[in-house]
Design brief:
Its EC number is 5.1.99.6. This protein has seven helices and eight strands, in the order ααβαβαβαβαβββαβ. By secondary structure, the chain is α/β, with parallel strands linked by helices. The chain has an eight-stranded mixed sheet with strand order 3-2-1-4-5-6-7-8.
Length: about 240
């Protein structure tokens, strides 16, 4: 049976269940595991000898928090990350993650055009699955710069600028080379053509069965698994 991909409503429902009394996860835990999976994906695809300089682009929400965690792990893996925050998050958790990165000596850059030439690969953690077009300032100028940079891009969960269900229908989003879906793939990435990984080894068997996710087995101690089987064109949403 094929892996299930998620609508925005169902993705939100699963997130809520993970963090309610039944799931018992804190957002800190989920973000740590998600960011670790993102860092592991980048290190698997982009060897640090050839791609040592990682530009981690973080939005102000939970997606950006995943990126900050990934930046910290990438530094520990031996990469040279730097962080670009078009619009920094205001929550306490986000600020603590920024402090953790600063304590690792990871620089934050303020000027995207000058940061791109000194980067080897981009980690896109700007928008999450709750994004709805249009792209507003300051992101409306950043996405074209990232797209035209010529650098390889790895996107987290959903490429920035894509609608979670309609994909890049507006043709305003990034076109990454690699995607790491978190928890389960989202409906909008069914036509994604690059290398596609799944991360988020925090989904319980109970939740997997309840939502009919049909997740693949993660190999050994890996936090990620590459998806090699094409996903179906459509699957009706589970009625709960």
């Amino acid at each position: 049976m094929a892996i299930r991909y998620l609508t925005a409503r169902l993705a939100q429902q699963i997130d809520e269940e993970l963090m309610n009394a039944a799931g018992a996860f804190s957002i800190d835990q989920l973000m740590e595991l998600a960011g670790l999976a993102c860092a592991q994906t980048l290190s698997k695809v982009y060897d640090k000898k050839k791609y040592p300089r990682v530009l981690v682009c973080c939005g102000p929400g939970n997606q950006g928090g995943d990126g900050l965690v990934a930046a910290r792990h990438l530094s520990q893996f031996g990469y040279q990350p730097k962080i670009y925050l078009p619009k920094p998050g205001s929550k306490d958790l986000y600020k603590r993650l920024q402090t953790q990165c600063a304590n690792m000596g990871i620089p934050t850059v303020n000027d995207l055009p000058s940061a791109l030439p000194s980067s080897d690969v981009i980690l896109d953690a700007i928008f999450g699955f709750s994004f709805k077009p249009p792209v507003r300032a300051p992101f409306d100028t950043d996405l074209p710069l990232l797209s035209s940079s010529g650098l390889p891009i790895l996107s987290v969960d959903i490429p920035s600028g894509w609608d979670v269900e309609r994909g890049n229908a507006e043709k305003i989003g990034l076109n990454p080379d690699v995607l790491i879906s978190l928890t389960a793939p989202k409906l909008g990435v069914k036509d994604f053509k690059g290398r596609h990984f799944l991360g988020g080894r925090f989904v319980s068997k109970r939740s997997e069965e309840k939502f009919n996710l049909n997740l693949p087995e993660y190999p050994g101690y890996e936090q990620i698994v590459e998806l090699t089987t094409p996903m179906p064109d459509h699957e009706p949403e589970l009625k709960l």
